[in-house]
Amino acid sequence: MTVNLLDKLGNWNPQLFREIKGRLKGRNIAIAVSISLMTQFLNVMYFYIQLPADDKGYNRFSTCIGRTIKQDECVRYIIKWQEWWLELSNMLSLILLCTLLLAGVYMLMSDLAQEEKRGTLNFIRLSPQSSQKILLGKLLGVPILLYLAILLAIPLHLYAAIGAKIDLGLVIGSYLLVGVICSGFYTAAMLYTFLGGLQPWLGTFSTSLLLFPLLPLLYLFLYRDVDHLSFNNTYLRWFDLPLGENMAFAYCFTVACFGAVTYGIWQLVNRRFLNPNATLISKKQSYFLVFFTNLWLLGFAWPNSTVSHFSPSVGYLDLFFIVPFCFLLLIGGLSPTRQTLQDWARYQVGRSKKALVQELIWGEKSPSTIAIGLNLVITALIWMPWLLLFNHVNLPQYEYHLSQIQVAISFVLMVNMILLSSAIVQMILLTKLPKPQVWAAGIIGIILSLPPVLVSFLASQNPQQSWLWLFSVAVISIQQVSNTSIFIALLSQWTILTVLSFQLTRQLKKAGESTTKTLLIPSIRQT
């Protein structure tokens, strides 16, 4: 029976069978089982010794069990078992979550890094099985011993939840949520390794930093106190869905968001695994990603039906802080390397304008500037309803009061800076500099961080220096700038963008012509 199951597993996913066969050995299984059982025992004993003792030093649990004492004395030592089991359940939830995330991320990154260093990952790429099955085999097979240790702790966790009188539906739901979260972190760890991150400790440390902001959210589903848990935040809504008032809405929304993020990262992992030299994301994928990301952000900024006054401060912060940061990441993921651009430019010589436009919009190897511009158009269309509903925004922490037209101008200035960043990055990647990605990231970081730094030093002494904000991605003080300064800033940005576009086009034509001559001249001489 076991042999037949192993044969079926090997036929379905050879990579998974290889990982399981290499790890599920007697010694490894014994170590995993011992660690799991010992951890459970220590947790139970820790909470057991926390029980107060009576005057004679006996634990109050043993005082009322197996001893003949007066009824009133026994009542004095009655234990609130529901609270005791709840504390044990919460501690187990925390340990299981942290162990799954940190240990699982480390094991996956360490395994893929070793495969990359030994060169066996390229050999796996040449196997006839699909990339999806190979990656799934890694995802399920590498942490198989960790899964075994966690599985052995599930009975105690369920028993503690039953003792705490927690609904089993909530417990099963928390398991599903933890599974979705771990899948997202595991796929992100694989992507990090495929991008060249060969330090497992660094990925594990980053995971621990990301885990802390998630704990307040996970507290609602993992660490439950049935007497105090309540959803009463009327302002936490997504397109007027009461996420802060209804636990079912909040749970489904959280699972859906983590599931969508996991799916998106999985597509990037699969793309990077198939072709390590390709861009991180295709142009078609970027359009879908930008559309759904902006739609997700817009949901939190949508007018709330429970309040009479519409305050678009959340939308303003999303649009001018989160969106620019996401676009900077998108520029890095869409911009091809120098060799890719040269190959693309060589085959564009003599092609029609229609074919060239299609390549710029959909092509995998073409420059990213046009695609970034289209993504900015998608962003503008999605946020236009919010802007039409916009009256004024008050940001008391910044003491800013912006009108509708000021927000529109700020958005145009932000779009210009993102397009300038895209053109600069593409030009740097087209040069022969060593490690051009590092140079591009450093130069863009300096360009975008210089205006805020100068403002922080100069604006305190001279408020007229606030015009420097006009050359930053996050424009937050436009109401302090004159109309002349705004016009000059727009004209300067458009002029620089035009010059960079012409320069980039000239470099691409030159690269294509020079490469074509290099290939054709030897053959002409031979004839």
Folded structure, characterized:
27% of the residues are buried. Helices cover 72% and strands 2% of the residues. Helix 10 (168-194) packs parallel to helix 12, helix 13 (283-301) runs parallel beside helix 17 (369-388) and helix 15 packs across helix 20 (483-526). The protein has 20 helices and two strands. The protein has a two-stranded antiparallel sheet with strand order 1-2. A hairpin with a 4-residue loop joins strand 1 (392-395) and strand 2 (400-403). The chain is an all-alpha fold and 527 residues long. Residues 54-76 and 225-230 have low confidence and may be disordered.
Summary tags:
527 residues, single chain
Percent of residues in helical segments? Answer: over 70%
Rg, alpha carbons: 29 Å
The number of helical segments is 20
The spatial strand order of the largest sheet comes to 1-2
Distance between the termini: 69 Å
Secondary structure: number of strands: 2
Low-confidence stretches: 54-76, 225-230
Strand content: under 5%
Shape: globular
Structural class: mainly alpha
